[in-house]
Amino acid sequence: MSEKTYTKPPDEELKEKLTPLQYEVTQRAATEPPFRNAYWDNHEAGIYVDSVTGEPLFSSLDKFESGTGWPSFTKPIEDGRVRTKMDTSHGMIRTEVLSSVGGSHLGHLFDDGPPPSRQRYCMNSASLRFIPVDRLEAEGYGAYRERFAKEGTIETPAFTDNECAAPPPGEAPGCEATLEVAIFAGGCFWGMEDILRKVPGVLETEVGYAGGTTENPTYAQVSTGETGHAESVKVVFDPSRISYEELLEKWFFRMHDPTTMNRQGNDVGTQYRSVIFYTSDEQAKVAEAAKAKAQARWKAPIVTQVVKAGPFTKAEDYHQDYLMKHPGGYTCHFMRD
User: Fold this and answer.
1) pLDDT higher than 80, residue 283
2) Quick one: which of 28, 205, 294, 309 is 20 to 30 A from 2 by CA?
3) Reported pTM
4) From the candidates 164, 175, 188, 332, which is the catalytic residue?
């Protein structure tokens, strides 16, 4: 049905084309963190294609809320677009799903999805690229447009009764992330991101707003200091290469001054406070221990907050990788001995 042909680029070209996170997931079968990835909560109409080759894989018409924190589908967009094989990694026996042309690791297939098929394709957002309906023709996928014009076509309702969202008592979930998310705040997010994105083991960084009460805040709102948000950096990292403890001790507590209340350099306001937003109970324990350990390095009391992570709102595009785009831009962040 597709109007295009698809090929997998050579590995060297892939490393240039893909982000480190996309490469780690598609080529090395990593699993991104749940609930903090691009498409788990995307409800827009369109199709999902292989981020490596562009091959059509899934449709929003078959997407459903699984409660797992990963984008989930009841079936591929058409027969032959994906293939499966047995996966015995991580102490589990599962069915791995790969794209047919590129062999990209997409995720896993489970038999606890919605009826009648009971299939649940639990996918990684990093393996996918979303193309909204109004862009299908422009990007060469116009043959799929008519599916969204049919009357009576509805999305699959939520179905959260599965082993990943609600495993049996005493059993571990059937889905396990191999990557982890950390969220830090410590002054202007430009400087923090510029340092963190270069840390070995860090696969992706994104600046945004965390810790406030205003829903979907903008920079203009956050800069008033009235939303409660802090300028923050979300970091996706590989714990097999760098631990959360190392991120805190060797980087976070050295890249900014954690003893200044609501201030970093010339930036003053609650949006510039020092915060560790933990995403798990284990992270909370490690953060408190790292804070206590860091206190020995600083003469004044450390005022860094350790609080549970809530919603993270991505900042406007012009803030992302700001110091890469503007090497001479303002920053007050540097590594302290």
Assistant:
1) yes
2) 28
3) 0.90
4) 188
